[in-house]
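[09:14] KT: can someone run the structure on this one? pasting the chain below
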Amino acid sequence: MTLAEYTISELAQPYAISLAARAKHVSVLEKAGLITKRRSGKEKVIQIQPTTLEVAAAYLGEYEKIWSARFDALEKLLEDKRQILKVCYLRHSLQPNLQDNIVPYYQ
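[09:31] RB: done, C-alpha coordinates below
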Protein backbone atom coordinates (compact mmCIF):
# COMPACT_ATOMS: atom_id res chain seq x y z
CA MET A 1 0.00 0.00 0.00
CA THR A 2 1.35 3.40 -0.91
CA LEU A 3 2.11 5.95 1.78
CA ALA A 4 1.00 8.85 -0.39
CA GLU A 5 -0.20 11.99 1.30
CA TYR A 6 -3.36 13.80 0.32
CA THR A 7 -4.96 17.01 1.41
CA ILE A 8 -8.41 16.69 2.90
CA SER A 9 -9.73 18.81 0.02
CA GLU A 10 -8.26 16.41 -2.57
CA LEU A 11 -9.87 13.39 -0.94
CA ALA A 12 -13.24 15.06 -0.40
CA GLN A 13 -13.45 16.67 -3.85
CA PRO A 14 -15.38 13.82 -5.56
CA TYR A 15 -18.01 13.81 -2.79
CA ALA A 16 -20.69 16.36 -2.05
CA ILE A 17 -20.11 16.72 1.70
CA SER A 18 -19.83 19.76 3.90
CA LEU A 19 -16.65 21.01 5.51
CA ALA A 20 -18.01 19.94 8.91
CA ALA A 21 -18.70 16.42 7.62
CA ARG A 22 -15.16 16.20 6.23
CA ALA A 23 -13.71 17.25 9.57
CA LYS A 24 -15.86 14.70 11.41
CA HIS A 25 -14.83 11.85 9.08
CA VAL A 26 -11.16 12.75 9.36
CA SER A 27 -11.44 12.96 13.15
CA VAL A 28 -13.03 9.50 13.38
CA LEU A 29 -10.39 7.97 11.08
CA GLU A 30 -7.60 9.65 13.02
CA LYS A 31 -8.93 8.44 16.40
CA ALA A 32 -9.14 4.92 14.98
CA GLY A 33 -5.48 5.15 13.96
CA LEU A 34 -6.28 4.62 10.28
CA ILE A 35 -4.75 7.94 9.24
CA THR A 36 -2.37 10.56 10.55
CA LYS A 37 -2.92 14.27 10.01
CA ARG A 38 -0.46 17.14 9.85
CA ARG A 39 -0.54 20.73 8.74
CA SER A 40 1.33 21.82 5.61
CA GLY A 41 0.90 25.56 5.18
CA LYS A 42 -2.82 26.28 5.01
CA GLU A 43 -3.73 22.68 4.19
CA LYS A 44 -4.17 19.67 6.41
CA VAL A 45 -2.46 16.64 4.93
CA ILE A 46 -3.44 13.10 5.80
CA GLN A 47 -1.62 9.83 5.31
CA ILE A 48 -3.08 6.34 5.48
CA GLN A 49 -1.60 4.03 8.13
CA PRO A 50 -1.47 0.70 6.28
CA THR A 51 -0.63 -1.46 9.31
CA THR A 52 -3.72 -0.35 11.21
CA LEU A 53 -5.81 -0.73 8.07
CA GLU A 54 -4.53 -4.28 7.55
CA VAL A 55 -5.42 -5.21 11.14
CA ALA A 56 -8.92 -3.77 10.68
CA ALA A 57 -9.34 -5.62 7.37
CA ALA A 58 -8.28 -8.92 8.96
CA TYR A 59 -10.69 -8.38 11.86
CA LEU A 60 -13.57 -7.61 9.52
CA GLY A 61 -12.59 -10.55 7.32
CA GLU A 62 -13.29 -12.94 10.19
CA TYR A 63 -16.80 -11.54 10.54
CA GLU A 64 -17.27 -11.80 6.79
CA LYS A 65 -16.59 -15.55 7.02
CA ILE A 66 -19.12 -15.95 9.84
CA TRP A 67 -21.84 -13.99 8.07
CA SER A 68 -21.18 -15.69 4.73
CA ALA A 69 -21.71 -19.07 6.37
CA ARG A 70 -24.93 -17.85 7.99
CA PHE A 71 -26.26 -16.44 4.73
CA ASP A 72 -25.39 -19.70 2.94
CA ALA A 73 -27.35 -21.64 5.59
CA LEU A 74 -30.29 -19.26 5.24
CA GLU A 75 -30.20 -19.62 1.46
CA LYS A 76 -30.29 -23.42 1.79
CA LEU A 77 -33.19 -23.24 4.24
CA LEU A 78 -35.17 -20.99 1.90
CA GLU A 79 -34.45 -23.27 -1.06
CA ASP A 80 -35.67 -26.27 0.97
CA LYS A 81 -38.86 -24.35 1.80
CA ARG A 82 -39.34 -23.49 -1.88
CA GLN A 83 -39.05 -27.15 -2.80
CA ILE A 84 -41.62 -28.10 -0.16
CA LEU A 85 -44.01 -25.44 -1.47
CA LYS A 86 -43.55 -26.74 -5.03
CA VAL A 87 -44.45 -30.25 -3.90
CA CYS A 88 -47.51 -28.96 -2.02
CA TYR A 89 -48.58 -26.95 -5.06
CA LEU A 90 -48.20 -29.96 -7.35
CA ARG A 91 -50.16 -32.18 -4.98
CA HIS A 92 -52.90 -29.56 -4.77
CA SER A 93 -52.96 -29.26 -8.58
CA LEU A 94 -53.33 -33.01 -8.93
CA GLN A 95 -56.01 -33.18 -6.21
CA PRO A 96 -58.22 -30.11 -6.65
CA ASN A 97 -60.56 -31.13 -3.82
CA LEU A 98 -57.71 -31.35 -1.31
CA GLN A 99 -58.40 -27.81 -0.09
CA ASP A 100 -62.04 -28.71 0.58
CA ASN A 101 -60.82 -31.46 2.89
CA ILE A 102 -58.33 -29.24 4.74
CA VAL A 103 -60.30 -25.99 5.16
CA PRO A 104 -62.91 -27.33 7.65
CA TYR A 105 -60.14 -28.14 10.14
CA TYR A 106 -59.02 -24.51 10.21
CA GLN A 107 -62.44 -22.88 10.57
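[09:33] KT: thanks! Helices lie at 8-12, 19-31, 50-94, 98-106.
[09:34] RB: yep, looked fine to me
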